[in-house]
Design goal:
428 residues; alpha/beta; FAD/NAD(P)-binding domain; Enolase-like, domain 1; 3 domains; six-stranded mixed β-sheet; six-stranded antiparallel β-sheet; 31% strand; FAD/NAD-linked_Rdtase_dimer_sf
Length: 428
């Protein structure tokens, strides 16, 4: 199948990646049938604003992504995929309907990881934040001005929601089991920096803290939390932000290499079978994809960021139309993301996982305006900026080329001597 030999493509996942792939397919001249299937009742929408602008009330919860009028795509919302028949080339929906395909793109993304105790998770006042419906409910709860919001988890969702709470002058406590928040995403030094920023903004940040049990009132509503150290927090509003689970369960029995890490795919975005060979006609893109990162020796990664979802979807779309493997192009996007919290804009290029050294190369952390570089085994692997994004492009090539770390001092606005910090906690 190619752009000149129309068939039918089914995209499972009414997501940013799914819509991006649909647009790319049409842009590459595909004129066949195109169907987008999603389990939520909404057309594809933008998720990043949900934890920021939507909660603040800057604009409503409808963050629907623009869709060209001439896209000519059939959209099935509110319908979950329940299975994949590879031999019969069909996606099986939860209602039993079969959608035949010539090519299939898996773009089912992730869902919020639920609280492990189902009875506690079901209490009124216990929430997660992943979907538009989640954001609508939490936004309404913040409008009611709870006496205290508690967040459990040390990732971006937790800190972004905490930031909004402080902007709304709502008391907020953040419980993080680890010794440093945000370390997995932006490294321990920046995580420690953001911990200080959060506390200065009035966040009751408790590190090395975990919930032993939740307490309910007589109406099935959350009333308080008992911590593992014996402390107690009174609250009727808890946001569980303990990570994401990849939506691969519907692929059980399909013979694909899918597990908790996502759907394994090769550098051409082709889904792999359990034996490691490419599955005919099946591709993957976005948060659900588990792929080899060419910028880190093909180490397998699953990247939950906006930019990667778009870039990977476009590559998958192009490769779906290739006449043969020789015409395919690899996905080599350099992961990047950004976050706004506590009045600061944080941006990062590359991945900090496994980094063993860190250096501030422009500005100063004390001024809360700086650029920092991460090293791994003597080469540059990532760069992060805090309110200094204009310098990021200058370091992109250093990451792509694996330039030596630490970088040379003495450049424009750079210190004459760069202090390098060894990250023992991530080097082990």
């Amino acid at each position: 199948m190619s752009a000149h030999d129309p068939g039918r493509i089914v995209i499972v996942g009414a997501s940013l990646a799914g819509l991006s792939a649909a647009k790319a397919l049409r842009a590459h001249g595909f004129s066949g049938g195109l169907m987008l299937v999603g389990d939520e009742p909404h057309r594809p929408y933008d998720r990043p604003p949900l934890s920021k602008q939507v909660l603040r009330g800057d604009f409503g919860p409808d963050t629907t992504l623009p869709q060209p009028a001439d896209l000519d795509i059939a959209v099935r919302t509110g319908t979950a995929a329940a299975g994949l028949d590879r031999d019969g080339r069909a996606v099986i929906l939860a209602d039993g309907e079969r959608l035949a395909y010539d090519r299939c793109l898996v773009a089912t993304g992730t869902r919020a990881r639920p609280w492990p105790n189902p009875a506690e998770a079901a209490l009124a006042g216990v929430a997660t934040l992943r979907t538009r419906a989640d954001a609508e409910r939490l936004r309404q709860r913040l409008r009611e001005r709870p006496a205290r919001v508690v967040l459990v988890g040390g990732g971006f969702i937790s800190f972004e929601v905490a930031s909004v709470c402080r902007e709304l002058d709502i008391p907020v406590t953040v419980l993080v089991r680890d010794a440093v928040p945000l370390a997995r995403a932006i490294g321990a030094p920046l995580g420690a920096f953001m911990a200080e920023v959060a506390r200065d903004a009035g966040v009751d940040l408790r590190l090395g803290a975990a919930i032993a049990r939740m307490e309910a009132d007589g109406r099935g509503r959350l009333a308080g939390l008992v911590l593992e150290d014996g402390g107690r927090i009174e609250t009727d509003c808890l946001v569980v932000a303990i990570g994401a689970a990849r939506n691969v369960e519907w692929l059980d029995g399909a013979g694909l290499a899918a597990d908790r890490n996502g759907l394994r795919c090769d550098r051409f975005c082709r889904a792999l079978r359990a034996d490691g060979t490419a599955a005919d006609g099946i591709f993957a893109a976005g948060d659900v994809a588990h792929w080899p990162n060419p910028h880190d020796g093909d180490a397998l990664v699953a990247v939950e960021h906006w930019g990667n979802a778009v870039a990977q979807a476009r590559i998958a779309a192009r490769n779906m139309l290739a006449q043969d493997p020789a015409g395919m192009v690899p996905h080599d996007h350099l992961p990047d993301f950004w976050s706004q919290q506590f009045g600061l804009t944080i941006k990062l290029l590359g991945l900090t996982a496994g980094a063993d050294a860190f250096a501030v190369v422009r500005g100063a952390m004390a001024e809360r305006r700086f650029l920092a570089v991460f090293g791994k085994a003597g080469r540059t692997v990532a760069v992060a900026s805090v309110d200094s994004a204009r310098w990021l492009p200058a370091y992109r090539s250093a990451i792509l080329e694996g330039a030596p770390f630490p970088p040379l001092p003495g450049g424009l606005d750079a210190p004459r001597r760069i202090e390098t910090q060894v990250l023992e906690e991530t080097a082990r």
